[in-house]
Amino acid sequence: MRNFSKLFVMAGLILGSVQAQFSEGKPALHSGIGPSFSYMISLKMDEDAFADLPTFSTAPEFDIANASLTTGIKSSNMVFSGFEGFGEVSPHWTIGMYAGIGEYKASGNDTNDDQFYINFTINQVGLTTELNTHSRSRLMLLGGSMFGIGYVSVSAQSSPGNESWQDVISGTDTGAGVTGRKAFEVSAWTLPVVQPYLGFRFDVSRMIGLKAVVGYNYQIAASGSWNLYNAESIVDSPEVSLSALFLRTQLYVTL
Question: Could you tell me which of 72, 98, 76 has the C-alpha nearest to residue 154?
């Protein structure tokens, strides 16, 4: 996440520099900033790449091939929360920046009462470019795209129930020898992330507006790009697609 924060700051500096160059010598144009929420449709964990999760845990929540599960890591939709800013550099062109994070979480217990947790997280950050109608009404139609990078991680862990402090710190179970605790975290950078979209912007008032777009998220973690604990490369890791249709809304404050 430290690298993600650095990228966010760098993107903001680039955005400010580019907008300043376009707007130099011109009156201030329309701009806005505010929270955004994306709803990824049919985005779920790759059943082939993570087919061995039931071996890690016998808890039913870890079986992503089980069609009867409708929540947790089997869910086919992911909600992203983020932040977005934009500024007009001409009457019809807008540039901006977007950053968002989405995740699935699931937990369960197996027949031995061992507790299992899993977290599937996707980060995205990039610059946006849009062409809008710049109509004199409050409503503007627009088309554009986000170009950026992403980061995906999958972490899982298990621990026996009712462990004592000594069991946790020492890594052993005084009653049965070695504890059943185990864990892993795999992650990968995804480059590029491309999101073409169409939508509208509506100024509710002089201070507040609403933006909504529908588009397609192209994002792939390449084979061999995954790392264990963000340190050791996994050379035989598979390609994992994170692409999906999305709907994004933003409530912005005009500047």
Answer: 72
